[in-house]
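So, can you check this one?
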Amino acid sequence: MRFLGWDLSDPFARRPRAVDVAVVDMNGRVDFEQREWPAPDAEGRLDPEALVAAFPVGPADVVVVDGPQALARPGARVREAERLLRAPGRTPDVLPVPGGPFHGFVRGGVLLFAALHRLGALELLDVDTPEPGRARLFEAFPGATWRHLAVEKLGKKSSPEGRAARRERLEAAGLRFPGAGLPTHDELDAALCAWLGWLTRTAPERVHAVGLPPWRDTEGWLREGRILDVRRT
C-alpha cells in the first residue's frame, strides 16, 4: 500500500510547474516524484483520459491532493470547507477562466478530480471520519494543517529555516526522509498530504473531514466536497 500526496500547480500557466508527488509507505518512508500536466486545448479543456494517464495510481493507493475537488454550491462564492479552513484560493460555483489569481490552479484541480472520479480511477471521500478500506481519494489544504502542527512559527515556507522546521514536524509525526537533502516547500506540502493519507490507515482517529459532502449537479459537475485535516486537540 502507498500513500500519495500531490501538490498541484497551475496547468494553464505559460510554463506549468511539474506537480510534486510524495510517496509514503506503511513505515512512513518518503520518496519524491514529479508528474507533468497534459497540455490543455485552445478552449482551456484538459482531456480526462490524458489526466488519468498523467497521474497514475495503483489499486491500493490512497491519494491526497492539494487542490480543489469541486465547485461551490450554486450561488456561493466559496466552498464551505475553504471558508472554514481559511483557504486563500477560493473555488466559485462556476469553472473559472485562467488568468485571475488562483483561477488556473482551481480550474486544473476541479478538472483533475472530475476525470479521476468519472473514469473510476479513484473513489472520493464521503464520510465524516475516514475508515480503512473505503475512500481512497481525498483533498487537503496544507496551510491549515501546517498551522496546527506548528508549535511556534515555522518561518517562510520557501526559506531553508522554514523548510527544515516543516520537515522536523513531519519527522516528529512519524515520517522518515532518506538522504541529507532538504525538500522544497512544494515537496513538503506533498509530503504533508501523503502523511494525512497515511494517518487514515495508521491513526484514523487523528483526522477528520471538514465541509460539506460532495454531490453531482444535473449538469454533471461535482459540488462542494470535504477537506481532510488533523483533529484539533
